[in-house]
Amino acid sequence: MKDYAFFIALLFFTNFLFAQSDITICHTSPTQAFAMFASDQKFNGEHAEPEPYLHYSKDGKMIKIKTADGKTANAYLLEAQEDSDDYLFVIHEWWGLNGHIKKMAEKYYRELGNVNVLALDLYDSKVAETREKASEYMGQADEKRVRAIIQGALDYAGNGSKIAAIGWCFGGGWALQAAMMAGNEARGAVIYYGMPEKDLNKIKEKINFPVLGVFARNDNWITPEVVSKFQKDMQTANKELKIHFYEATHAFANPSNPNHDMKAAEDAYQKSLAFLKEVLD
């Protein structure tokens, strides 16, 4: 009898461990899954360290926005020349809101016309200049805090606004999440090799806008298989998705990447610009 009781207890404990493991795996958000790459040395080595660059602009300015957790956050704002409810949220790579991202935000601002461009700082003023720091900051990014910052940006834009989002790498996944958080105000999202949403139910319920995905065929992290699953889920949910693959590696179009694939990056930029002009029209 004692042996039987011990066996039942052992079986219960084993099942509990497996259940806990399943919870961890099944309920890891796409942004958390991407943040786990921070501990991968190969992933870190894929990112060339950015060249020093300070962005100067007569139109752009740093502002403070109130966040949903009662704090404040930083953002780089380029205001539309005339009153406009159109907003493009720009979300940085794992380096943080550096000069390269501000420069790219202004590039879209110039091309899109009368659109407010808001580049969010999800690292609360921390900007990495080395892979080690970028890895540290991305790994430390707290999902609740990041969502509070995004919600603060949505509140800043206000009800009735039209919002699109774009981001690269770490920011690619968050661009999709930001659009999902925008609800009825969402008009579109551009993901540059970020982790797509994995939960089919969330795709069905929260992605009610077109999505453009820019990916690299030789990406060892956001692999073609990861993208294929997202494509199938979006098709199952009857959602609008355009995917463009490039014969390149991860981070090929990152604004901070001095070794980016210029031809592929320019083609992807033109496609993203056309997409944003369409959804924010």
Q: What is the strand tally?
A: 8
Give the name of the CATH superfamily.
Answer: Alpha/Beta hydrolase fold, catalytic domain
- What's the helical proportion of residues? 40-55%
Order of helices and strands: HHHEEEHEHHEHEHEHEH
Low-confidence stretches: 1-26
**Annotated CATH topology:** Rossmann fold
Whole-number count of domains? 1
- First-to-last CA distance: 74 Å
Largest sheet: 8 strands, mixed
Rounded average pLDDT: 90
Our estimate of the beta-strand percent is: 15-25%
CATH architecture identity: 3-Layer(aba) Sandwich
| Rg | 20 Å
GO molecular function, one term: hydrolase activity
Domain Dienelactone hydrolase: 85-279
Signal peptide: 1-19
Keywords: Hydrolase, Signal
Molecular structure report:
44% of the residues lie in helices and 18% in strands. It has 281 residues and is an alpha/beta fold. It has a single domain, classed as Rossmann fold, CATH 3.40.50.1820. The longest helix is centred in the first third of the chain and has 25 residues, at 2-26. It is globular and about 45 Å long.
Main attributes?
281 residues; alpha/beta; Rossmann fold; eight-stranded mixed sheet; 44% helix; 18% strand; disordered N terminus; Dienelactone hydrolase family protein; hydrolase activity; signal; Dienelactn_hydro
Write the layout of secondary structure elements.
Elements: H1 2-26, H2 30-35, H3 41-45, E1 60-66, E2 72-78, E3 86-91, H4 99-112, E4 116-120, H5 131-140, H6 143-157, E5 162-168, H7 170-181, E6 186-192, H8 200-206, E7 211-216, H9 224-236, E8 241-246, H10 262-279
Parallel strand pairs: 3-4, 3-5, 5-6, 6-7, 7-8
Antiparallel strand pairs: 1-2, 2-4
